[in-house]
Amino acid sequence: MRASLLDWFSLEGKTVLVTGATRGLGQEICSGLGTVGARLVVVGRDAQRSESVCTAITEAGGDAVPAVCDISDEEQIEALVDDVVGRYGAPDVLVNNAGIAPQGSLLDMPADTIRSTLDTNLLGTILVTRAFGPHLVQRPGTAVINIGSVDGVVGTPGLVAYCASKGGVVQFTRALAAEWARFGVRVNCLCPGYFSTDINAEQLADPELLGKVLRRIPLRRLGQPDELVPSVLYLATAASQYVTGQLLLVDGGESAR
Description:
Blueprint: H1 5-8, E1 15-18, H2 24-33, E2 39-44, H3 47-59, E3 63-68, H4 74-88, E4 93-96, H5 111-136, E5 143-147, H6 160-180, E6 186-192, H7 201-204, H8 207-215, H9 229-236, E7 247-250
Parallel strand pairs: 1-2, 1-4, 2-3, 4-5, 5-6, 6-7
Helix pairs in contact: 2-9, 4-5, 5-6
């Protein structure tokens, strides 16, 4: 048995790499985990934004380093792995958060938009995990957390490509969890519902649209970004050491309907 319950939730001395970490929920995940002893590798496409997030974390007493990578580009992914592993070793926790969510009718959506959605949300998640894989499987106790979505579980009009991509992330999680369990690597999928972030602020400022969204959520409110962090912490630590291949929906009950 561990000395105390808090020990189960410790990330002290652990390296956590988060993709899509410079905005929205990814930024909040980094900020939250930066308060519990983790070293954050803050990965985004914009070097300036990554630096800014790291500065905020370090000024608050945390430990964070920036990294630049477009996860739809395989060469950039390989460069990211070489850089991170060369400087810090393999991450103890890999959080695949990067994603995009273009909206519109499938009949009107250009093929390039559909491809970019799948390339970023699904293929990017797979390729990042595969690239770090040879290092992760050598370290029993490593955790992979794929950020899915409630839209990977339920169908949402106007988000067909996004739903398809996140549904793929769900199945990728299950299959990889079964494949890597023999290495002692846990793979789980955290599926947020509607959270209030800067990314959707303009869209949800429309009272009619906001009303439609809230009617789908039994708790009748949006999630606040910091409310996702404890679930990430649970999946990242020994608190979930007997949990793999699972979905954790943090959606105010939307998927229960």
